[in-house]
Write a structure and sequence with these properties.
Blueprint (H helix, E strand, L loop, with lengths): L2 E6 L4 H22 L6 E6 L10 H7 L3 E7 L29 E6 L3 H14 L4 E6 L11 H6 L4 E5 L21 H19 L1
Parallel strand pairs: 1-2, 1-3, 3-6, 4-5
Antiparallel strand pairs: 4-6
């Protein structure tokens, strides 16, 4: 049997909005699927309440008998329709939109098949702009979440993100407050991820 892992991340308000708005729904989907015979999706959890945190990734992978893939839920609550609101490390600005109105799926080169699969499935079930990228792991910002620990153990993994500081000017600042977040769009992303994970678990 193969296994999927989905994991949320919660250190700041923008990331906390993810945890308490979308992760419970996605986690319910994940744990429900875990009980199905031959389920591919085995678990979901919040990193910052010590469920499957970075130090436990290797143990987690072993416990789940070599997961097929890992999906890290990063910051997902800030969106803007303004031109120039989205920034990237060079040279990605030449390839991707200048408006921060989409959700991103980012993996390393070894995870490109997973990225294509997740993005394709998300687009089938969600009416929401999305972009996918499989990039060299040496790009620092590509691995700034818990999925990078799975890369180190040789597993396919990606993060779902609004690109954090490349879009959100209040990232990890005292101004990171609830009024900055778009809960309507966050909810639409959560529904899309729920449908995606259900499809992957079949």
């Amino acid at each position: 049997r193969t296994a999927w892992a989905a994991q949320g991340h919660t250190p700041s308000l923008s990331e906390g909005a993810l945890a308490w708005t979308s992760t419970p729904r996605v986690a319910y989907c994940a744990f429900s699927a875990a009980w199905k015979p031959r389920a591919k999706l085995r678990a979901a959890g919040w990193n910052d309440v010590a469920l499957f945190g970075g130090a436990h990734q290797k143990w987690f992978a072993t416990f789940l008998r070599l997961p097929h893939g890992m999906i890290a839920l990063e910051t997902m609550g800030y969106y803007s329709d303004a031109d120039g609101s989205q920034h990237y490390p060079w040279p990605f600005s030449l390839l991707y939109p200048s408006r921060g109105d989409f959700i991103g799926f980012v993996g390393n080169l070894a995870s490109r098949r997973l990225v294509r699969q997740v993005v394709g499935t998300f687009r089938q079930g969600a009416r929401f702009p999305s972009e996918g990228a499989a990039v060299p792991a040496v790009i620092p910002d590509a691995g700034r979440s818990d999925h990078s620990s799975f890369w180190q153990e040789g597993y396919a993994a990606l993060m779902v993100t609004d690109t954090a500081p490349f879009r959100y000017p209040f990232y990890h600042t005292p101004q990171d407050t609830a009024d900055k977040l778009d809960f309507d769009r966050l909810a639409r992303v959560a529904v899309g991820l729920e449908l995606t994970l259900r499809d992957l678990s079949d």
